[in-house]
User: Fold this.
Amino acid sequence: MAIEFAERIRRIPVYPLAAGYDLGSDIAMLASNESCFAPSIDVLDAANRAMTGVHRYPDPSYQPLRQALADRYGVARDRIALGNGSCDILLAAGEALLEPGAEVVYAWPAFSVYPHLAASSGARAIQVPLDADDRHDLDAMADEITVATRLVLICNPNNPTSTSLPLEAIAAFMARVPRHVCVILDEAYVEFSLTVGDTYASVDLLRRWPNLVLLRTFSKAYGLAGLRVGYGLCGSEDFRAAVDQVRQPFYLNAAAQAAAVEALRHQDEVERRVMHAVAARVELTEGMREMGVWVAESDANFVWVHLRDGVEEPEVIDGLAARGVLVRAGAALGRDGSLRVTIGTEAENGRFLGALRELL
Ligand SMILES: Cc1ncc(COP(=O)(O)O)c(C=O)c1O
Assistant:
């Protein structure tokens, strides 16, 4: 007889896993919005030093990382949530806030983990279509808030569409949200955003709205995706306490903590990755527009493309893979006929453009 699982297991969508991690080095891995640059020697050394103490559990107070983030952003330590990647905090937020009868509002397409929150909790997901430029339609989202709403997710810049909104628009939205409704502003790509400007700008919003959480990660601009470190800057201590309550105590391993603290000391490295991505996204966008495809205005470390009518997405994905270039299919991310392409090294970007030109 087969094992009988909880009913929600049938509802939870399976995360679209990226392929290629076993294919060796001659592959352009442009499918998961990671950094194409390895961490600096100092960051690797810090992680290695932590390895000598791994017969002990990691520090469950996470004080050095909490303090480093508190110093950097001027947010009290007890209002900083940490997690095994920002996904960990996101899922914990779903567990802490949602239940049958509750509603969660988010734009669609957006980050592919968002549907998981409603499916696993039994809450209702309200998916609000993006506007014609593939940006969040915040007015339409505000219109969907009801007495049942517990959580709103805004992804800025948005994954997978790379588009962003200015903070004035977010502030105007917040003014329409009742204070008991939690809003998570998912800023996984904020370091790359010229629209937002810098990573301090949105922190000001926390002072005005205690129901706001800025969700951030070390997986993108900090280049530590493999170590899994995320954080949330919270408008109030309640959110941090609730997401800690629903998780196991040791969610952040010792090497990850040490690497993240060290990475924060090397903002020049972050700047280098950001400058590379900003220059490359302009080149990629222009290169693809010359081929006649529609490319969104990217404010992130990836670009979002609508293929021309009549061009089959699976054929393009397979053709790129056959040429050693892995990108994400729009079909897996909520929109058929699209591609999401992570910015790689100059050589990888050139290889992608060359392969796409051949296929189109
Ligand atoms: C919008 C968004 N939020 C959150 C995450 C999760 O990142 P991590 O769990 O690696 O911190 C991602 C990862 O791709 C993302 O695109």
